[in-house]
Amino acid sequence: MSNYVQLGDVHTYYEEDGEGEALVLLHPGLADSRAFEEYVPEFAQHFHVFRPDRRGHGRTPDVEGPITYEQMARDTIAFLEQVVGGPAYLLGHSDGAPVALLAALERPDLVRKLVFSCGVFHHDGWAPGAIELDDETLAFFIDYWGAVAPDGREHFWVVKEKLDRMHREEPTLTVDDLKGYPGPALIMVGDRDEEIPMEHTLACAKDSPTRSSPSCQAPTMAALTPGSSSSSWRAERRSRDRLELVIWKEVLGPVHVLGIALIVVGVVVLNTGLGH
Length: 276
Description:
Elements: E1 2-7, E2 10-17, E3 21-26, H1 40-43, E4 47-52, H2 69-84, E5 88-93, H3 96-106, E6 111-117, H4 135-146, H5 156-169, E7 185-190, H6 198-206, H7 209-212, E8 220-225, E9 245-246, E10 256-257
Parallel strand pairs: 3-4, 3-5, 5-6, 6-7, 7-8
Antiparallel strand pairs: 1-2, 2-4, 9-10
């Protein structure tokens, strides 16, 4: 079901499916809620699934001023308050990951459990050249973004410039900041991911509350997904490995996913990914 909600100065588009406990999916950069649509039928059997398009993405228009992770986290908090109406399982992939993390740090009461997939907590975590798009990928995103953009296809370059600045300068969290979320978390990365050095992801897992404090009861787990990366989502249309996965019971509940590679919410497709 398609809806709009006014979150501050942003007329935000979102999709809503299923019933049960709320699961909010935060898409990668230059992508939108369509990134998850293939996997919604499975998850809608177990969760009330929400897929908002962030400002300047998908069917949500851009607004004046920069795009920042902090602002998108505030938008996410407003979405949890106004639309979800309470705490939710929160998953962010790539650009969605730091948005989810910042929202969880700011309002842990609204995040039941956190999934941080193929993202960075500091902009230094990107491998050299990782945030640069080659011509083929750029052409793909121009078409993908422009297909639904309310601001028109030509506005792509405005949004891209805003995101380029954001990727160069944000986020700026430290390992000490990561200790601020007290709930359970699953931190994920693909073993073929060339965009984010493994050390960065391991630091994120190592310095989470569970690893840092023996008294913390909330589990934090790091998951390495075999044969996967966070780049070249376009390849998903051509090639996909198959895998049986059990979504961590400690994180999202006892959901068993068969067949097509669905890791947590199918966002890390084997040998594929989606943007930043």
